[in-house]
């Protein structure tokens, strides 16, 4: 058997001659000390792993709960989310423009006002040519102030696009996935637009 070479004690760093190959300490006290240190290290490692596992489990639980909660939401919930994202984009797009109907810039709330109402034309709910920034008084109290909306709209998008808007559009039947896609699409569009507007 090969005789072990001299080595440094892991505790005091003094040179010593080990009796066996698996001895890393110069005397029994340093042997105990080394064993204690190793135990502590092992325990800390175990605690860290346990904590990590618990956090992972908690995150998974939260995800599952979220999925379950969404699964019981009605379709209207996702439709509203898509509508909110779309409307926010329209307001951001028209940020520097006046109300499409009355042409005024004024303080107060602005909405995304649909030219052809969602109720009468659900197929144009998410049509960008059909929705424009509108002041709250026009949107809420003047039923969209449609008489004045029309000239403003034609001036803004041009006769050709206006005619296209007024032509027939098929109504797409939307499922939850479709609404989620529309929501994400407009959230993303909004984000990119508002970043551009900042610079
Ligand atoms: Zn030692
Ligand atoms: Zn107005």
Features:
single chain; 199 residues; mainly alpha; two-stranded antiparallel sheet; 5 helices; binds zinc ion
Low-confidence runs of at least 5 consecutive residues: none
Largest sheet: 2 strands, antiparallel
Rounded radius of gyration (Å): 34 Å
- Per the principal axes of the C-alpha atoms, what is the gross shape? rod-shaped
- The overall pLDDT, averaged over residues, is 92
Structural class: mainly alpha
> Going across the major beta sheet, what is the strand order?
1-2
Instruction: Provide the list of bound ligands, each named once.
Output: zinc ion
Taking the alpha carbons of the first and last residues, their distance comes to: 76 Å
Order of helices and strands: EEHHEEHHH
Strand content: 5-15%
Total helices: the number is: 5
Percentage of residues assigned to helices: 55-70%
Strand runs, count? 4
Structure, explained:
This protein has a domain of 124 residues. It is built from five helices and four strands. The N and C termini lie far apart (76 Å). The radius of gyration is 34 Å and the shape is rod-shaped. 57% of the residues lie in helices and 7% in strands. With 199 residues, it is mainly alpha-helical. The strands form two sheets. A two-stranded antiparallel ribbon has the order 1-2. The chain binds zinc ion (2 copies). One zinc ion binds next to strand 4 and helix 3.
């Amino acid at each position: 058997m090969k005789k072990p070479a001299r080595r440094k004690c892991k505790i005091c760093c003094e040179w010593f001659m080990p009796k066996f190959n698996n001895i890393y300490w110069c005397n029994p006290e340093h042997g105990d000390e080394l064993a204690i240190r190793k135990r502590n290290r092992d325990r800390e490692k175990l605690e860290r792993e346990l904590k990590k596992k618990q956090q992972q489990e908690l995150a998974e639980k939260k995800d599952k709960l979220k999925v379950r909660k969404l699964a019981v939401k009605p379709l209207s919930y996702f439709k509203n989310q898509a509508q909110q994202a779309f409307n926010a984009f329209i307001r951001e797009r028209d940020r520097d423009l006046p109300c499409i109907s009355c042409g005024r810039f004024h303080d107060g709330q602005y909405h995304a006002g649909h030219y052809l109402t969602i109720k009468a034309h659900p197929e144009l709910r998410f049509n960008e040519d059909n929705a424009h920034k509108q002041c709250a008084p026009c949107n809420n109290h003047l039923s969209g102030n449609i008489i004045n909306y029309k000239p403003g709209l034609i001036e803004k998008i041009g006769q050709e696009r206006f005619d296209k808007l007024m032509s027939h559009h098929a109504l797409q039947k939307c499922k939850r996935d479709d609404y989620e896609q529309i929501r994400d699409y407009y959230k993303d569009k909004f984000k990119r637009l508002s970043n551009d507007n900042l610079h």
